[in-house]
Design brief:
Elements lengths: L5 E6 L5 H13 L3 E6 L9 H8 L3 E2 L5 H6 L2 H6 L3 E7 L1 H9 L5 H8 L4 E5 L3 H5 L1 H12 L3 E2 L3 E4 L5 E5 L3 H12 L8 E6 L4 E2 L5 E2 L6 H12 L3 E6 L11 E4 L3 H11 L4 E4 L6 E3 L20 E3 L3 H6 L8 E8 L3 H12 L3 E6 L11 E2 L1 E5 L2 E4 L3 E2 H16 L1
Helix pairs in contact: 1-2, 1-9, 5-8, 10-14
Bound molecules: cytidine-5'-monophosphate.
Cytidine-5'-monophosphate (C5P) binds next to helix 12 and strand 17.
């Protein structure tokens, strides 16, 4: 909920600007007051009248409107907000933000502010992939701007791919997460989740039965306590949550790279079921039966252990590193040994024998192993395990 919060919404010039109207409605329904700024290009897509009617306040459109400057200067406009949301954040607006340009009201107030900024990029798929946009995105993120989306899908221009603006509900969730005053506000937590896929050839892969449910529930619980969550996920069954930074990967090696790129973080929770081995001799083209009756000989190589790598970092190690241990026998003994071997702080151990229905199910029965000993939690919903664990993480980071 956003009761009592003031949001400054900057509407850029893209076809997704129509979704900004729905976003205003959602923000207000959640209890926020919404002040709007419509760029000149934005006004080509939605009218100032629709924007102000939905916001219930006048819309600001021009930097040099002296009446506006007299009533509320652009500096004041940006300072009086609890959060600035840029939606759609066009390639042009992101470029201006990256360069610190100030040639219209929107870019000027974005430069003049020290308020948190959430941007929802929206652009053509090629613009999204262009190296210039990549550079600008990296820069604005380094400057502290949070991103939500974009989504992948069909675009108004008829092309397909990433670049669609995140749905208004997702932008709302991201804004709520940024404004939440929970015990993890100001903290960043990395969560890995889901299985990894290790290619055999371009069409086949080795995988496991992880659904990503526990990692996703954890990301939600940490987000709800106010953390900024970096969610590195393999190809999971359950969709990633809203209001977190989602980084999609396929293989263990990509996951390690994404994790390393996300550091530094305050805590890292490795809930992914990473494949222990990859196919060392993965084929570049589809393997064919050769009529001899002989199956292809696959050779395996061990994947990097992401948890151990992060837990054993000499510098920049997260303050808290949490691993999971899915076992089918001697659960606690194996997990205790795993904690020592990998040198993580906590291990969340669970029994994933087929009879338990835990792998791929909605419930989990875990034992939390720390330096102080072990605690067996009763069987409960994965969401509840996640809430309890998030609470414990908040206490540990306090
Ligand atoms: O060794 P095992 O796979 O049982 O360890 C499980 C824990 O280690 C989980 O937290 C999992 O996310 C993590 N792990 C990892 N990288 C690997 C293998 C496991 O981060 N290559």
């Amino acid at each position: 909920m956003l009761g009592g919060k003031r949001i400054l919404l900057v509407i850029g010039g893209g076809i997704a600007a129509y979704k900004a109207l729905e976003l205003i409605r959602l923000f207000r329904k959640a209890g926020a007051a919404v002040t709007t700024v419509l760029t000149r290009a934005g006004a080509e897509f939605v009218t100032p009248l629709s924007v102000s009617a939905l916001a219930g306040e006048k819309v600001y459109t021009d930097l040099f409107d002296l009446t506006d400057e007299a009533e509320m200067g652009h500096i004041q406009l940006s300072r009086s907000a609890d959060l600035i949301v840029v939606a759609p954040a066009t390639a042009d607006l992101l470029a201006k933000m990256a360069q610190g340009r100030a040639d219209d009201l929107a870019s000027t107030l974005l430069l003049a502010t020290d308020t948190a900024v959430l941007a929802a990029p929206a652009m053509n798929v090629r613009m999204w992939g262009h190296p210039a946009t990549r550079r600008n995105l990296a820069q604005v993120q380094a400057d502290g701007v949070r991103l939500v989306g974009p989504d992948e899908g069909e675009m108004a221009c008829g092309e397909y791919g990433p670049g669609r603006m995140a749905e208004p509900v997702a932008i709302l969730a991201a804004a709520e997460a940024m404004l939440s005053q929970g015990p993890l506000s100001g903290k960043t937590v990395l969560v890995t989740s889901g299985p990894t896929h290790e290619p055999i050839d371009p069409v086949r892969y080795i995988a496991n039965r992880s659904s990503g449910a526990q990692g996703t529930a954890l990301a939600v619980a940490l987000r709800d306590l106010g953390a900024r969550v970096v969610f590195v996920t393999g190809p999971a069954e359950v969709p990633p949550p809203t209001g977190v930074d989602v980084i999609r990967v396929e293989t263990a090696r990509q996951m390690l790279e994404a994790v390393q790129a996300a550091l530094p973080v305050d805590a890292a929770v490795m809930a992914a079921a990473v494949a222990d081995w990859r196919v060392a001799n993965a084929a570049g083209s589809k393997l064919k039966k050769d009529g001899s009756g002989r199956a292809p000989a696959l050779e395996f190589a061990e994947n990097p252990d992401i948890l151990a790598t992060v837990a054993q970092m000499a510098t920049g190690r997260p303050r808290l590193v949490v691993g999971f241990a899915a076992e089918t026998d001697d659960v606690v003994a194996h997990a205790v040994a795993k904690r020592a071997r990998k040198r993580c702080d906590w291990i969340v151990a669970n029994d994933v024998s087929p009879g338990t229905g835990i792998m791929g199910g909605t419930e989990n029965a875990v034992v939390l192993i720390t330096a102080d000993g072990q605690e067996a939690w009763p069987r409960m919903a994965k969401d509840e395990v996640a809430r309890r664990l998030a609470q414990r993480i908040a206490e540990a980071l306090a």
